[in-house]
Amino acid sequence: MPSYQPKPEHKFTFGLWTVGNIGRDPFGEPVRHKLSPVEIVHLLAEVGAYGVNLHDNDLVPIDATVAERDRIVAEFKEALAATGLVVPMATTNLFSDPAFKDGAFSANDPRVRAYALQKTMHAIDLGAELGARVYVFWGGREGVETDAAKDPIAAIKRTREAMNFLCEYAIDQGYDLKFALEAKPNEPRGDMYNSTTGHILAFIESLDHPEMVGVNPEVAHEHMAGLNFLHGVAQAWETGKLFHIDLNDQAFGRYDQDFRFGAVNLKSAFFLVKFLEDVGYGGSRHFDAHAYRTEDYEGVRDFARGCMRTYLILKEKAAAWNQDAEIAALVKEINADDGAMAPYTGAYSRDKARALKAAAFDRVALGARGLAYERLDQLTIEVLLGVR
Fold first, then answer.
1. Mind listing the pLDDT tens digit for each residue in 333-370?
2. Helical H runs in the chain?
3. Tell me, what's the pLDDT at 2?
């Protein structure tokens, strides 16, 4: 019986804010005591994680003095050294403090926008000091409750200006960093800008340094919008922009639930894992999720182990799917190509277009052919259920 134990090569990571979540919600007070960053590092090492990610204020309080900041960071580094955990990704909290109630980079107040840049530069310094190679931007307050409040074109332009500024800052400092932008359609704002991965992919192409900016898609955020997460991930991968990924789970159309990976949409999780493994994605598998509010810290450990275990089980199922002879035969049949269309496809030419316009097709036969997708999907279900 496989043990499904995580190993460093799996690159499983959690945020300080995930396993450190104390179970507060809009309707209830905390149910778990707060752990220090050092305690969280040791908890993650205990369950077998590879790394730990953080917002700046997950580690250093927003009002810490320089001396306090240096002491906290030194203690955190000691914990990393003692456990062997690494910090692959860092980010900035631009959503918790009341100063950011109208956004950060898109805020109407220019003083807020300037403070957001200042705070982010300090946070980038911290991430680089801890060894992060990816820096994530989630615009948690970049949006509106009423479109009377903010010009959307001005908001886009302000966000572009901020990203261009921060790209230049990272380059000027000599940091070996890539930026990854994270989409979400709503919550905590009524409506948020750059609300899906597709929006962000388009936005990136308008930046001064698009080569250093990619995406950090999150399962729950795309499911909140009713979208197929795999398709967004595939588009990001195909364009070379999948710099990081947030794994969790979410019922479609709900608030941001951040459930354990694979806890809701198991078939979607399977195809996502299969895709990441098939294409050879080499980045972190970051679990941006929370344990149920019903849990104590032993339950938090169960949650963290469960995220990684489910990924590894689905990775094994993906290999079984790929190696299944009946499935392979069906896939080959579905994608059969006898080469007859080769003269008409590929790059355009005038002769090719003329020949294609003159070609004869049996439209009725094309429409009459069954594609066996029902059978293929059932075989997929049987692989997942462990009966094949």
1. 999 999 999 999 999 999 999 999 999 999 999 999 99
2. 16-19, 37-47, 56-59, 66-83, 110-129, 152-173, 197-204, 219-224, 229-238, 266-279, 297-323, 325-334, 350-358, 363-368, 373-385
3. 78
List the chain domain ranges.
8-322, 325-385
Between the alpha carbon of residue 242 and those of residues 122, 143, 272, the distances in Å are 25, 24, 13
d(CA 214, CA 383): 34
* Phi, psi (deg, nearest 5) at residue 70: -65, -40
Phi, psi of 245 (to 5 degrees): -150, 140
Q: What is the pLDDT of residue 3?
A: 82
How many other CB atoms are found less than 10 A from the CB of residue 149? 12
Domain 8-322 has CATH 3.40.640.10: no
Active site residues: 55, 58
Closest of 334, 309, 307, 313 to residue 384, by C-alpha = 313
Residues 6+ apart with CB under 8 A from 337: none
Cα gap 245→272, rounded to integer Å: 11
CA-based torsion, 124, 234, 309, 300: positive or negative:
positive
Which residue ranges in the chain fall short of pLDDT 70? Answer: 1
Amino acid of residue 108: N
pTM above 0.90?
yes
